[in-house]
Amino acid sequence: MIKVLVVEDSPVVQEFLVYVLSSDPEIKIVGTANNGEEAIEAVKNSKPDVITMDIHMPKVDGFDATRNIMETCPTPIVIVSGSSSTEEVATTFRALEAGALAVVRRPAGKGHPEHAATARELVQTLKTMSEVKVVRRWPKTKGRPAVLQVPSDVRELNSRAAVGVVAIGASTGGPVVLRTILSALPRDFPIPILIVQHMASGFIQGFAEWLAQSSRYSVHVADDGECILPAHAYVAPDGFHLGVKVGGRIMLDRGEVENGSRPAISYLFRSVAGVFGQNAVAVLLTGMGKDGATGLKLLKEKGALTVAQDEESSAIHGMPGEAIRLDAATLVLPPDKISELLVNLSNQRAKDSAK
């Protein structure tokens, strides 16, 4: 039985969420909270397996409640959003930064044609996130442990000086990791970046805007046929696989779902392998399942530089872990070292161009 705490300030919405979740025999509601302050206390008393968290609430909002819970009593948190407003989206992604695992739309009301599908999405997300072993988030004033340096094999960097694209795939825990990576890149980073981030529908545009604002890097949702440019990152839109054509143009595809997802990371990696081959860098980040692992393996076989996120820094090590099991990763690194590697590659490319 999965124990759920529902945090929602609207009595009507709270009752509706309890109704939706209680309809599943594997879920037990162990408490409700009307604001973040009550949520912090309820977590200590009811010890839920997973929490649904509202964002805008009186006294203590969803962001501050998430941050407090993750610092004092770490528990998987899913943000349930009922709005796509700019303010709501910004706070939602701040909550992911504070330690929430996922964001999902509030289910449509009873009688709505999308009620069953959206209710099922919420229930399945909670079940999945309840299995994640979250760790305590220390306040920013406390230091982080040191990490190993990126292997500085200059000959390897020299052999990849002609990198034409960086392809990145991520799922649960990915937004904050992507922000970490992009924030460390120079604004004139000379290589286009293609990104597939698994996310509930309706949030990708807000995610791209948040990523651009928080990282100060140029990020936008990809358009079919546009030319990929240096110093730009392109995010796969809702419901479309992201690929690239010969000549460096974006290709969007509504083809079959792969590994339960569309967009799929494997689609992106296969496309990049076919067009760029050894002149690519591919990075597989945190996430549940296996999407992207075989694609990363293909890229490595083509001679590309392939990277998997390390287990310690991953919210869920499913995807990168599978890639490591398949011997698909040239390097296994934490996010800040992935950034360092990309900067080293671009610096080496600049040195070679100046010769």
Please, could you describe this protein's structure?
The chain starts with a strand and ends with a helix. With 355 residues, the chain is an alpha/beta fold. It has helices at residues 11-22, 36-46, 62-72, 86-98, 115-129, 154-159, 174-183, 204-215, 265-275, 293-301, 318-325, 335-354; strands at 2-7, 27-33, 50-53, 77-81, 102-105, 165-170, 193-197, 219-221, 233-235, 241-245, 249-253, 280-284, 305-309, 331-333. Helix 10 (293-301) crosses helix 11. It folds into two domains: 2-129, 3-Layer(aba) Sandwich (Rossmann fold), CATH 3.40.50.2300; 154-354, Rossmann fold. A seven-stranded parallel beta sheet has the order 8-9-7-6-12-13-14, sandwiched between helices. The chain has a five-stranded parallel beta sheet with strand order 2-1-3-4-5, sandwiched between helices.
Would you kindly provide a brief summary of this structure?
The protein has 355 residues and is of the alpha/beta class. It has twelve helices and 14 strands. Helix 3 packs parallel to helix 4, helix 9 runs parallel beside helix 10 and helix 10 crosses helix 11.
Could you outline the blueprint of secondary structure elements for this entry?
Elements: E1 2-7, H1 11-22, E2 27-33, H2 36-46, E3 50-53, H3 62-72, E4 77-81, H4 86-98, E5 102-105, H5 115-129, H6 154-159, E6 165-170, H7 174-183, E7 193-197, H8 204-215, E8 219-221, E9 233-235, E10 241-245, E11 249-253, H9 265-275, E12 280-284, H10 293-301, E13 305-309, H11 318-325, E14 331-333, H12 335-354
Parallel strand pairs: 1-2, 1-3, 3-4, 4-5, 6-7, 6-12, 7-9, 8-9, 12-13, 13-14
Antiparallel strand pairs: 10-11
Helix pairs in contact: 2-3, 3-4, 7-8, 7-12, 9-10, 10-11
